[in-house]
């Protein structure tokens, strides 16, 4: 009887047909298992095919998706046994290879990729770590300090609250808020330091401040209106534009009504920080000084400091308006005045009506002490000589019509009361007036001069317009009351003139007992060998003469731990006996090393005294905390760089191979 065949048609008698019917019972499963051949003897069609699927690069499996092992099971063919039947001329089987067991996909975390060009590894810093400061364990009772002391601490530690150059807040604002919430005793002093000069940026903060001041101050934790002393307002974002669709324009007059203790009002523009801009490039602002603002000021506010800027009103109109306002009560007690961009393009008329208006407006201030002119071509020798004689501080910044003869004339008539003199970026101003500085300004405490020039126009003229810094016959003299000397980018002189200048400082050192800071930057265009010799000689001599030689305070000093107030009697007796024994001990052989050390110290002191007596150097000052001297031939720039500015901790790219190769991130490129 012929064996049973499958019901499906076959192509030839050599073809073995695999059944895809599910097995219905456990007996059939056992029968099929017993009929299976060993793995090495199975045919190619009955073996599990090798999977070439790539491993998943995702760090996690999506929900609802089968894993790799389940997918392999779904695509693999069934391994059921063939139905029994006659086999004629079987095809020889090829050598088989064992199929690898599918491995579960590795879960790789998402790799953090840095910016392009970032080095793979950083060179570990070799610098020593900062030593951990170990306190004494004694916490001072800060909360018991008086209000005014806590207020000074918070004010000095936090200000300035704004970075005006970038129009952003500093982190000290948040720090003051945290201090106010830390302790009840800190609450009012910290908030008083915050509202002393409240930051009005971003612009919506100004509206929030106005809403706070509009509330009844009796219902609040403190009187915020009385805490505001200064207002620094950037005109463009706060006053010129709307703060939002719901807030609208900010009304400065309403804010001034709520600040009766205000004494500093400053309205500035962000472009005021850009030096060297030509006058014809300084465009007028859309916002101008308003009558309503000054009407509120004259109702009871006494200003101590104010700024006039021709960006907000033309120079001619501004000078007339300035004279009118200076006669009113709010400006009668003004002590600090700053004028920006006061220019005059019609200087052919002599005397100029604008110059007369400026002199008249400034002389209407009876208590003026500090005067500052910034990028004002209207300022000249005639203007300076007619300024009030009560000036204690004068600042001239980028005034193109100022010569050394004008400063000499001004100092001879107004220099007696002068305490601070700052001259920066003035093209025609040389150092010739310094020969009479000690005689003209006997009370001068700060002398600052910067010969770096700024010009953002297409000409880019950054050179001074004088022939020489000073003549060799004009020997500088220095007032004895000087506390700080800062001279930047001294140039247009030779080595002989520079030697006269530095010699004058060394000779005046015994009389400059109040000098605490000496900073000089000089450009000397001579041979590099001569310049190196000159630098080595004078930098060392100036540091030896002015730099403080006493060792700095020990940073490890701290308050001592608590000790018992009444030590035990036994310990006291033991201490007294040991002291008596050590004092009454005769000189024996044990005291030999001590005597030798004393003799060595005496010999060293004697040698130092002999060296000092042999040296012909004048008496040293030795009281300056900072002595910074720089002598080179570099071209003048706003920022001087050195080698440390170009070094970093990155790898150079030529280190020995450490066995770690770069592995690109797993995944597809698209």
UniProtKB/TrEMBL annotation:
Can you say what this protein is called? Uncharacterized protein
PROSITE patterns linked: LRR (PS51450)
* Compositionally biased residues, Pro residues: 83-93
- Which InterPro entries does this UniProt record tie to the protein? Leu-rich_rpt, LRR_dom_sf
Biased segments, Basic residues type: 103-113
Instruction: Output compositional bias ranges, type Acidic residues.
Output: 57-71, 645-663
Span list, region Disordered: 1-127, 546-670
- Please list the residue ranges that the record marks as compositionally biased, kind Polar residues: 1-19, 634-643
Q: What is the lineage of its organism?
A: Eukaryota, Fungi, Dikarya, Ascomycota, Pezizomycotina
Database matches in SUPFAM superfamilies: RNI-like
